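Anyone up for a design puzzle?
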């Protein structure tokens, strides 16, 4: 339980630093991702290779709504 508590404290400290950086206008991408995750709003990052493969597969085997 102490390890979990320590991890939570470290995450809280990082989030606090990220919010301070956001207020100053110079957050890193890691800080923005941390803020988004804390708010439950992560950014979807699609893999272009997998998207192309899925779309090709959909053209061959899929129906009308088979695309990403």
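Challenge accepted. My sequence:
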């Amino acid at each position: 339980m102490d390890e979990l508590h320590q991890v939570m404290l470290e995450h809280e400290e990082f989030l606090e630093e990220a919010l301070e950086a956001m207020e100053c206008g110079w957050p890193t991408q890691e800080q923005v991702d941390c803020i988004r995750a804390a708010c439950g709003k992560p950014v979807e990052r699609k893999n272009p290779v997998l998207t192309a493969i899925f779309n090709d597969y959909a053209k061959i085997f899929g129906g009308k709504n088979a695309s990403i």
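A detail worth pointing out: The chain has a mean pLDDT of 84.
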